[in-house]
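Reviewers of the previous submission asked for a worked example of the structure-prediction workflow described in the proposal, so we include one complete record here. The input consisted solely of the amino acid sequence. No template or homolog information was supplied to the procedure at any stage.
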Amino acid sequence: MIKLVKNNFELIFWVAALTSLAFTNPTQTHFVLCPLRLMGFTWCPGCGLGHSIAFLLHGDVKALLHAHWIGIPALLILMHRIVVLFRRAIKAQQPVDENAAFSPTANRRLPI
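From that input alone, the workflow returned the following structure tokens.
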């Protein structure tokens, strides 16, 4: 179990992060992890990104654009990363066929 979590930590982290954003209420204030805001700066290029992704996951596009417009590409990038990591995890679970390197279809595999 520990090996499974250790080998797939990034996949588990991103899925847990997006799941928690989907179930949180983005209109409520919460604890801030932004180091710039914690140092007293009022502007940060990344602040509002979590709220915008949460608004997008709740289907509120107007509030998403008000919070941070980069939420749409950020969510697409995170979802792509999750798919890539999931495919890699599935591929790592499959047994290695030593004769596959000599088969005619061996070079047709697409990289993940």
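The chain has a mean pLDDT of 85. We consider this example representative of the routine output the project will generate in years two and three.
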